[in-house]
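Notes to self, RNA polymerase sigma factor:
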Amino acid sequence: MANQPDTATVVAARAGDPVAVDRLVAGYLPLVYTIVGRALEGHADVDDVVQETMLRVLRNLGELREPEAFRSWLVAITMRQVRDRFRDRQAAPAAPLDADLRDPGADFTDLAITRLELSGQRRETAEATRWLDDENRELLSLWWLEASGELTRDEIVEGSGLGRQHAAVRIQRMKAQLETARAVVRALHRGPLCPELAVLIEPWDQRPSALWRKRIARHTRDCRLCAPAWHDLVAAERLLAGMALIVPAPTFAAGLRTGATAWPGKVVAAKTGLSVMQKVLVTALTVGVAGGGGVAALELNGQNDPAAVAAPPPIVTTPPSSAPAPASASPTPRRTSPSPAAAVPTAGKTAKKGVGVWRFTGAKAALEDVGAGWYYDWAAQNNEIPGPAGVEFVPMIWGRQNLTGATLKQAKAEGDVLLGFNEPDMAGQANMSVEEALAAWPRLEATGMRLVSPAVAFGGDTAGGWLDRFMTGARSKGLRVDAIALHWYGSDFSAASVGQFLGYVDAVHKRYGKPIWITEFGLMNFSGSPRYPSDAQKVTFIKGATAGLQKRRYVERYAWFGLPAVGDSVDFGLYRDGDSPTEAGRAYRAAG
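result:
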């Protein structure tokens, strides 16, 4: 649950304490805004409905007999306002505004995608909400918050006015429609578009509707090219975790610091005689919300408010890795500006801390300087990048082409631990089916080495995902897997990224109960801009992430991607040469 004001705050606000009223409004505004925004799908009425809801809450607060039931009472008022607006629309339907003229900030799905930096199946799910019927979108606005831990089922029942069993049935119907809508979104985004689908949608006006949802869905079920749109859909509950609260943009309260009292299009001062904070009904809200989740930080008159709304650490679907194949060429060097001179902190050497390395000038010296306890280079032997004494090299069988007797013999000569295939779930990497990997695994077992699972690019915690199916198959066949390897890349560069990363690691360990090796991790936005974080953001993430990994006993090893900061890795690597760390390199050097 988000850290929202407690019952004592509600009691104080009900008694007229202006500070408590301010905290109550600030703490619950994101919840109301999210429910209304999703229910009305970003319609221009969202601001008005949120404003009217909060005004009704403040006007009627004195009548609330059970302060501990404030959240349920608030949700019920919010849903009544949403339904009133639905009825008003049906009574006097307005012509839809042309997409080119529509304010993009008014589209709640666009806002969610932009503000939360969604990608992959999370983005598909957000877009699919546009295709839901009004009644299902209304219910989704509540269930979405239940799935992310912001509301309870009891609060949904009270807010929707449905009985518990009726609510359960309605939610299942809504989820089925959402899954259909997700398949529709996938089919429409497929490149190249299915020729038969292109003909079908030629008369479509590009506006989501129930009719076109049914037509496109029926086509996808019967079409050989489009049918895969229904495959490998991660359960919506897992995608929604950490994506619940979208707070209003700071422009909602832009007038606060200057003493203005207007919301967009509305003057609140004329409606109530409350204080400036209560008139505006919003604090200055600054957002740091991630693609998987994060924190919506509240700022009161420039001061951080302890009632900040924080989402729980989410399960993250990570973007694909850009890890090189073992035989890849060294990146092309380019000129870079040196970092400001600063003292390099003492290296914190630990057996856990490692790095992924590819060939660059000074690799051996950098491995020594960074304090790595181990390293790997995606190969079965370290002839290309020999390390310093006392730094363990861990071999890998990268993919099917490395499954030869000679390569396995090389790996066995390097040590006691063997890393499995590199991102077999990615077409650009090892690209192996679960069945192919399982068939090959006995050859790795025959080395007698301790075996670390194939390292999936994403979805390691997902039921029915590549890793889950591999581990299930290994158990059924009696195959040995001694530890789990993971890769993780975050596109949220805020401080929330630490919780997202560690939450994913925790979730994978909870699913399989085995030691964890994180063989690649870092911050990169593969599909947006900026692609890489600032130096300060990298340092903050490295400090928080490594501290968390060091404390987790089940984490045996972790490795930053990667050691070189030359050529095309200058934006995320750690060392320019043997003794020139980047700011990120300094932070990683001190870790452990």
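- The chain has two domains: 7-239, 354-590.
- Residues 7-239 form one domain.
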